[in-house]
Protein 1
Amino acid sequence: MKLTDIQNRAANFIDGPCLVLAVPGAGKTTMLLERVKILSKITSPNKILTLTFSRTQAIDMNNRYTGDDTNIMTIHAFCYLIIRNYLKKFHRELRLLESTDTYNKYDLVKRIYQDINNKKPSREDILNFFTETSYMKNAMLDESYLKKVRIKNIEKVYQTYENFKKINNYIDFDDMQILALKLLEENPRLLKSIHQKYEYFQLDEGQDTSLLQFKILKEIVNLNNNFMVVADDDQSIYSFRAADPEYLLNFTAYYPRAEIIIMNENHRSSKNISTLAGNFIKENKFRYEKEIISKKDMGDKIIIKTLHDSYDQYNFIRKNIDNDKTNAILFRNNISAINLVSFLLEDGIDFSINDDFLDFFKSQIIDDIFDIIKFSEDFNNVSAFENIYYKIKTFIKKTEIEKLNTKPLNQDVFDFFYNFIDYDRKNSLYDIEKKLKHLRNLPLSRKISYIYKYMGYKEYASLKANKFAEEVINKDLFIESLINFTQDLETIEDFDKKVLSLKKKIKMINKSSIILQTIHRSKGLEYDKVFVVDLNKNEFPIIDYEKDPIKNLEEERRVFYVAMTRARDNLYILATKKRNNKKALPSEFFTRIKYLNK
């Protein structure tokens, strides 16, 4: 394949360190594979190591490479190779916990949590445990980081989990990297063998690298520094996985002789799209200066539009979809997909969506609210009460809850507690009882609204907020979407049937030209038409006030930049005046992009 001048310059860079900054659609994969062919003329192909962050990219590169045997793999796979080969010499083996039949890491942590806390963990607790501990390891933080994580006894759970792995010779994905770095730092002969084995190192998707991964790379390329990193600091959107564009911004501090090549030609998007996206991302301060240049025509005008509500937004999208082209509806979080999926299914329109969209219906918030409803229907439901008593301001103590095993079978929970709690708490509990009785006569959607607004659950959800739990950061929107979804339902059983029907319908859909995706999922992909939806205040950007607000806003800007640059020909940026029957305002990104598009 014929390369452009700038691709050619990067592909023909041979010795020393080099940072290639590739804008979206610059043809970085083509360039990297061409460079492997060029390097193969001066050294053996198996002396060239190409590492990438994602398994999908590694598979794609291997499929596209037509030359002799070469090494293209993920960083995790490379670390596993180091560990396996090292331990083989000592006739030892470590088993990967993720893939073993005997143990599943999620089930294992569930059991450990239950043993330590005498209660079952929520699904969120387990997911957050792995997200937080993975972040801690990748950012190379010490265990004191766990003190601020809102999971009961997380430090004990973590230590027990780590000890179990150690005793039973297991490792998980994050351990691979930690152990590989430890082996490289402590075994000069091992490091020397890698220096002898590989002469040239390439890293793709460099903006997704964590501090831990960067240190591993620094060790292995240290001898001759024949190291090319291909990255785009403007597409660094995985801080929740401890990826940090700072390593790229300081590249010349680590490699003073490094050459920086900017592949700024976009072969994907029209001039209109490239120019607007480029002007928008320039508002970030912590980045490399680069001018994105489209190699295509001006193209169609970008449509930036405010619609009345979610249904109006959907109708606009439906009218502008072209079934002969690829169409992507992109959103900042999965909550936006709820209404879209419902509307598309109602109209019998096929679409594709990732399975993780259905995680919306597995949320701890839904479990909590449904437990409150179940208890309202049966005051003798002890297990439901044990799950909710501290979430709705009953002021019952844990030591008092333990007395429930002495409650007579025919006595309801309230009557049991009225027998021994003090006067003030009795009044508070009586108020809760009245509210729960009131719930019985409401349809499901109004029950949800009432519990959230008037029973103290909103305050509880705020206290439980976790920086990685999307639905808790957007709790008001999450509840509104849930209310909207249950509008025509009377009972929890109706809800379960509707969700099951939804799952079946989604599974039955064949491949479609309409893709629904979070922006994070869309990274690295491209479509003819892109609709970026719900650019409303507090939806996009999502400002997490626990984080550094400037860094947070810059990352949100990068997320929007990624969304815009998925589009080849047509880009639609949409906001609504109403969201789930409530007034909505356009976000600062919507206002800014409208101004830049004048």
Protein 2
Amino acid sequence: MDAGTRDQGSGARGAVPGGRRLAWQLLRLGHASHKGAEAGRTRFGALLLASAVLALTFCSFVLASAAWDGREARGAARTPALAERGEQAKALWSRYWDSYGGRQFTVVVIAPLTDDAPLPPGVGHWPAPGEVLLSPALAEAPRAEDLAHRYGKVAGRIDGAGLASPGERLAYVRPTADLLRTADLERITGYGGHWIPFGDLRVVGERTAMWALLAVLLGLPALALVVAAARTGAAGRDRRDALLDALGAGRGARLCVDLGGAALPVALGTLLAGAALVPALLYDVRLPWIGYTLAAADARAGTAALSAAMGLAALTALGLVLLLRPAPTRRSGARSNRPTSAQAGPLRLLALGAFPVFVLLAMFSGPLLGGAQRSAVAYLFAVAGVWATLPWVLGWGAGRWSRKAAGSARHQGNPALLIAVRTMAARPAAVVRLVAVLVVAVGVLGQAQILSSLLSVMPGHERTPGTAAESAALVQSTHAGELPPAFRSSLPRTARVVALGQEGEGPETVRVMQAPCRDLALLDLPCPPRGKQRQVALGDLERRVRGAGPGPAGEPVLVRSGPVQPLTRGEGLRALVFAPGGSRLDLPAVKRAAHLHLSAKAAVQGLRESTEQPSELSHQSRWIPFLGALGAAVLLLAMAVAATAQFLRLARTLAPLNVLTGDRRVFHRTAVWAVGAPLCAAGTVGVGVHLVLVQPVTGGAYGGEVSWPLLAAMSAGTVLTALIATLVGGAVAAGRAASWVPRPD
């Protein structure tokens, strides 16, 4: 600390913080001492960046809530109001699922009954019979999907007022009079009713699940970055606090000084985050890779909440700066600015006490909360708590171990180990800062993998091989007779059709297949005489036929020759359309033929879609690696900040040894114990804790799977990180030592 700073500090002797003038002077003192302090510029930039990231993270919660609110409001406005008894219906309405590109979407069938029939929100005019209105996402679909002709002639687009989100896939179809008679439609009076929602609202989960993902995958990395930035150059500030304490400055005065050093970068970082959010308030923003479009109208509706979130983020960053400071030990009867071992600060004590509670909650949240949605949120909350408090536990353990290891190092005559363990014992918080980012990185990557694994579980289905799955499709419609010639002529030239059904009830139910002999032969099925049937064991059927739908396991299948027609009494036509020889089937052409010539609500599903996981769930799970990648990027920034701070501290601490030893190798050996060993230990403990935390959600039919290659990669990455940090830390310390000269502190 320079002379001017000491003079200002001495003016605080015995002063009790009170009054605006004194507070302003203390804030200016903090700002001035911060500018000239060790690593002052590095800390300024780190705090600015960390505050911006934390503000954006807090705002992501607000934007997620705003998106949910807007989606629910628009979804409620377009929900049909069913006509009650005695009430005149204005229109007919129904819906069904279709898909393209591995994702499902809703197709709404509508038809007016009166001249004053109300239009759905987002629809400017009634399409003519045989016409369709598409959302922008469907209208811009690849031409190979043939959505421009799949349901009829395209007559326009649905605007944003009728879409849950700008990127929603939705179609309004008005069928021809002939097709209208093939579908069972609801009679409605208008919109804004309380019926079951449709579209994206049927597949989007609870907002609390998104909050939990944001907290674990973005919140933890953002907090790790703030912690790393707050303690950059901590040694110099700790000495300044000790001096102020010796001069008689109270706790409030020291807090004001710390606040003065952090207020400007935190404020600038928060403003930077606000500037980054301006485009989202003006335009619809499409998130890269994930493909979700955030509506600008939703973001503008949350402007007040966004402002509050940025203010809360700034207060949180400043609060962490004030909490992450030591509580210096005052010697009885004397005052000294000589640094001593710091006592446990309030945040450290809180972390040490909360760690076992979080572990127990993570392990037993399912039994305690009934295994429902609350259990999942509680589990993620507990996991986040474990990873947030684990660095303090490691620092506490390193401090206790180092006190015992110091004696062994002294007896062995190992100066490098002795210096490292003495430093750990005096400043265990330095270990926390060093390992925190690595521990959180292990937690974020591990949880992202296990959550993706949980969402990809689909028990009870036999997967059909890729080539076979792409060569067949299931068709379900209300058509009651034989296949119409128009449907057959609209199919791909080589496509063949086999009718599917079942006979009997309960345990006596058996599957039935029927088609002309030439089509049965293409599936390696026998062709019994007309009026006869042949039993075929389920295991002897071609894989495409086995994957064509659930059936009694082990029971024979009855094969008949005859026309393709409904086989199950009281149900419509269920058929398998396939391409001979396992060649690829033109699925869009099959869908177009079914929608235009079978029934208004014909369901066509590729065999791959019917045997794999629910496609929309798979798409929603992409949020996990997307947020995990953002969190990993934040962690890289935090690791760079923490490593820079540690290298500077190590270099300053070891520089005088050059005069005492004359051996530059001692710097590299000390770096092994002071930097490399804690990182390796933290990575090993982090992987072990991850294995413990995933036990409640792994195993069983619906459990996730641990990725052992990922664990091996994280372990190897830990060793590599420790090696690089050791080499760089030793080199920086050796270089600083070569130019070190004594100077007043």
Protein 3
Amino acid sequence: IRSVLQTPELATSIEGEATRENTSRPISLGAATNNASWTHSTGTPTYRVTHPALRTTPQLAWSADIGDGDSRRYRITADPVVSDGRVFTLDAGAQVVATSTSGQTLWTRDLTPTSDRQGQGSGGGLAVEGDTLYVSVGYGVLAAVDVATGGLRWTQDLDASGSGTPTVFGDLVYLTAGDDTAWAVEKASGRVAWQTGGSTSINNVLGAPAPSVTNELALFAYGSGEVQAVFRRGGLDRWSATVVGKRPGRALSSISDVTSAPVISGDRVFVGNQSGRLAALSLGSGKRIWTARNGAVGPVWPAGGSVFVISDLNEVLRLDASDGTRIWGVPLPNFVKDKPRRQSEVYAHHGPVVAGGLVWVASGDGVLRSFDPTDGTLAGVVEIPGGATTAPVVAGGTLYVVSRKGQLLAFR
């Protein structure tokens, strides 16, 4: 019964949506640009990077060890960030590593607090601006680290898990802690500027989404499914909205956490959960523009009048950005085991990233896949030794991803 209930076809039909035929639709992505950096989990503090350049058939150029990989109890949750010829990573514990873009380890820094033991915390996130790397770790600490030496500049105790991903904008660092408290911290000193928060939930996924920040607003997402926009300098509320839904037949749909960090595109915000809902909201008011019955396991990628997403049903989708309708969808590998009684684990898929004219997905089954954005045709596959555990990032014509074994992999 479980295997039947968890098929994407039934999960879709239960909610009243017929399985649609894929269609081919032209798309204009604009000219690819050779971006030098990728400073935040989504590329920048506000928007996605605009069509980064990447070869259509990249090959593994090098690999470098970053520390502890995934295990039964601990997970790597931090996507790598790239700046000024350095790639920064965080392992499944609290070790930060700076690696040159040619693969040499430059320095390492263990951010385990002196009052704790190694192995007592997991998860975290990274953001870099100028000469400082900002790191959140599961031990409940936000730290500022010198990008050149790894020297510690300051730390701030978060009074809760620090597995959320930070965002740096202006003179503040923004972060959602594990207790659904939103923080704004002075980037120069680590002093608290203000705090706010949304409705709390015990059903949180490890690793809170990175806030998205504009000149005026900071957008936070919480475990309850609430999305909150506040004035970024003082933390006063501007608007709030909720993204909630259920996916009958799937146990994961009971988790209300927002798993797709808010992504701003023009005057819209795209945000989703893993229980079958993706919404487009007005940036200025929070008014709902449309809701699609497709969840999102990671931040979406708006491009060319479309929205690309990895759904909660393990499909890579292209949706119409104007109304959320499906243009095409391609199933990705789902259960690790084929036999119904052993279907207790699914493959994780990370992305998508639109680069070099293709849609890229890095997967836990050990494959980097690229798709034609017009119709979803599989364009190519590249082996990922050890399988992916982070979303891919692209900078300087190179795609970086971290493997489940704790290796930083560079594809050119």
Protein 4
Amino acid sequence: MTKIIDLRPDKKLVNTNFEKYQFCSDTILGKQEIELQTEILRIELSASQDSWLEARQFAFHNHLFKNPYDSTCWFIDKDGQIWKFKGSESLDLIYTSNSIISKSCNFKYNPSIAFASKNIFAICNGGGSLEFLIEYKKGIQNFVFNIEPAIILDARFIKESSEIIIAICMIDESEGKKFTKLIFLFYNYDENTNQTDSIIKLNYKRSMKVKGPVENVYIEENGKFCHIISQNQVEFEYDSTKLDKIKDDSSLNDSQIKIPQYCWSQDEDSITVYVKVPEKYNKLVAKVDVTSNSVLIAVADIILLSGETPNRLEAQLTTWRHKNDTLEVELSKSESGLMWSELMKGDTGGEYLSNEVLAAEIHSRFSHLCSNQQEVNAQDQPAIGFNSEQLEECDLSGSENILQRINFANHSITHMAILGSSNRILFIEKQSSGQIICLRHDHDGCIWMMKESNNEDWELEHIHTFPGFGYVEASKTNKKFCVSPPDGSFIAVVEHTKHAFLYEKPENNAQIGKQRILDFGSESSPILGAVTINKYLIILTKDVLYQLQIYS
């Protein structure tokens, strides 16, 4: 049974005295520019890639790949050369990929890199090739496999089972509708064999599909579970180890479609419940009885919905109306900003409706991020402080995400947290062990650590808070990347071109925080990548790599 996780911030880590971020004229401690010999390899959307999912994927692709095991970052240029930047102008050529050079004109996606361990790296060229690089003391050995065109989201080497797990992502289409497809490839790694073609071999494959975008995939160190953040629940589509079971489950689902007893949606302040009324009762007056912790909806002697709510309601503010064959009930939350993970305690008969943004509108908002052209009439965005009254209009609520922990073996969702519009994802940082995620909670940015576990006992821990950053991030409508070092000392909001905004973590109970603005000049190219390495912010354009020292 899926365990619902309620992400409530630790009140001890919340600064209720904070007022705003104030512009600080302090200059950064050091800035280095490295001109690249060859431009970064960047793929543009094709004419057939016309969906919101594809526009979004290309718009926010980060061409800098951070290695969590040694604090370096990697990138790929047009000649298929893979470079590693260690900092302080130390830029080393690691490898030249023939799979990238030979298929450069046939790429469907941008190339991507993932780090399975300290010495095992995976490169996907975006055109149907997956390449493993294994670093030994004597040099690098490569292994190439044919796969579907995709990008890599994560990689993990499981030492105990001598297994390498690769998570790749692509946009697929069925019956005229596009969706996100996730494929997990499980390779056996035998470093002791003398036969080169047996060192890495594909063992089995699992795939899932998601209606909507996938924000993040993380494979746990044990190789038994993965975390997926997406706008809808994942659905297992294929498992080469359980073909008969998948087929049986599929036919069962086709013949026994579950019809929800009710539907519900929510925003930060209210919940709307939609209940189907039997046709013969359409003209009767409905009975709606709401208390602070329960809801009863009935018509005549038929109870349509009844149960205890997981959180408190303002019962006196309840309203309802009968529209055609549906009763629409508006419930008011006692705690504004708290996103509910279920309507009734333990009830599975309802269907949650995500508050999705129209695809056309999103595609329009992302269009400037997918273009090589700079906006001629764009005005510089001022460095403003935190002011909730000014930023309310900028605080656009997007679609709601779901955090799911998946058991590979039995295809179950062991844990789930619904990240509502008030819990928008601000940034995600993979570490050598574990992963941190920054979620918006009301005004603040709360940083959570996703812990590792070999069983069903799994949780997230609130470890840091950036006061006021929730509203600040919402105001940055031209934001492309949001990055932060593992110690949480600062957050950088990086725009499509020219600007990056730095926010230093305020002292405990401080009222004012420092904000700085970095200007790369009017002639700078679009920003293609951004990462943080210890005290440095690294920025990548098509032909320049910037290293900015933020603190000493």
